[in-house]
Amino acid sequence: MILWGYSEEQTGNNEMSATKVPDYWTTIIKSKTCQNPPSSLLSSSHLPLSPTSTAEKASLLTMTDSKTIPSKAPAGRTKGIPAGLSVEFRIEADTFPTDDGNPSPTHGDELSMCSTSVSSSVLAHEYKHGRRYHSYQGGSYLFPNDKEEQERLNINHHIYYRALNNRLFLAPITLAGKRVLDVGTGTGIWAMELAHLHPEAEEIVGNDLSPIQPRWCPANVSFIIDDIEKDWVEPRPYDFIHCRYLCGSIGDWPRLVRQCFENLQPGGWIEFQEGDYTIYSEDGTLAPDNYIAVLMTHLADACRRVGKPIDMAPSIKALVQAQGFQNVRESIYNLPLGKWPKNPRMKEIGAFSALQVVEGVDALTAAPFSEVLGWSKEEIRVLKDGVRRDSKRRDVHAMWNFHVITAQKPK
Ligand SMILES: C[S@@+](CC[C@H](N)C(=O)[O-])C[C@H]1O[C@@H](n2cnc3c(N)ncnc32)[C@H](O)[C@@H]1O
């Protein structure tokens, strides 16, 4: 494990000071068959392959819409929500008339110092598929760690934050003098924002395989290069352990839950925030051959084949209960994909969800579809084109579920 972090001078109002460059650096070393896409996929016409343009992003995220009419009432039960569990609210679809007054089926055609002397392989990167990947425990995580992927992770952070109504966590804990661990921290954005909102927390540690976290940190934040699938060697137990968006990263979920339990103080809290990325619609507008549905189905298959499932969200509550946690509580949020909802916050979440799919389709397919599923470059290109096209559709009311599980270690 490698720990690094800048201790940052802070101004009186806890704003970060950009003028002082700390020379503080701490380094502590602790420690894959083929499946082809459906023929319909390959026979579909597709758009030219190009990176998402600024105009595309702007189009996906523009929130202003014209007049709205009530949508059809959603039919059937809400996917993944057990009987008796309430959801935030039903999502009403917005309408998008064109100049000729007819509904528009698409979003529009314009869519279109961590390292210093630590020069070990840990801080190096691997390059393949035109992307950059982590080097430490190389190959154990299927997704890139480059700037584009970091941007996608930060878009997801915004989605989760807005889904929770501008909250970073739901666990009923006050953070004054407390120690917090963010497991698989990614860009470190959750840990950084937590530190800014809670300077009273004693320490916030984020760990990850990839050294992609900021060099400039609040004084109470540090980042560690560590493999969370190995035995944890934590100096002291934490008061709060946060695990978010770890699907596709973990092979042994019961072990992860156990290590969290073992590394919590008695009375400490755990929180899992995990998407169930099985895309669905409540009104039948999402066809099985929708390219986003095809993407997610095959991605789940690829991750299952390498032993790191992405469909764990509905199972986490039971794992947490089996481990002996108390006060276990699960909240499930039905979130949109696409800016079809009428409600402004849901429209925003849907727009960012579509954007992260468009931004992320290359990252999500590069290694899993070629190395694991054995798809050809041409098959992957057709899929990516289709995903980019289907992300713009407003006549498809695609949805996914976001699970938040909080629980307490017995006192
Ligand atoms: C999908 S990202 C989520 C990042 C962050 N939790 C968030 O919500 O923004 C998963 C992260 O887990 C990290 N990861 C995957 N396997 C890991 C492992 N065995 N040990 C530590 N980190 C790991 C990846 O490097 C990546 O940054």
Which key terms come to mind for this protein?
Rossmann fold, 411 residues, two-stranded antiparallel sheet, alpha/beta, binds S-adenosylmethionine
What would you note in describing this structure?
The chain has 411 residues and is α/β, with parallel strands linked by helices. The protein has a single domain, classed as Vaccinia Virus protein VP39 (Rossmann fold, 3-Layer(aba) Sandwich). 28% of the residues lie in helices and 18% in strands. It contains nine helices and ten strands. The protein has helices at residues 39-43, 54-61, 147-163, 189-197, 253-262, 291-305, 316-323, 344-372, 377-390, and strands at residues 2-4, 125-128, 131-134, 179-183, 203-208, 221-225, 238-244, 264-280, 326-337, 398-408. An eight-stranded mixed beta sheet has the order 1-6-5-4-7-8-10-9. Strands 2-3 form a two-stranded antiparallel ribbon. Strand 4, helix 4 (189-197) and strand 5 (203-208) form a beta-alpha-beta unit. Helix 6 (291-305) crosses helix 8, helix 6 (291-305) crosses helix 9 and helix 8 (344-372) packs antiparallel against helix 9 (377-390). The chain starts with a strand and ends with a strand. The model is unreliable at 1-52, 64-89 and 105-119 (pLDDT under 50). The chain binds S-adenosylmethionine. S-adenosylmethionine (SAM) binds next to helix 3 and strand 5.
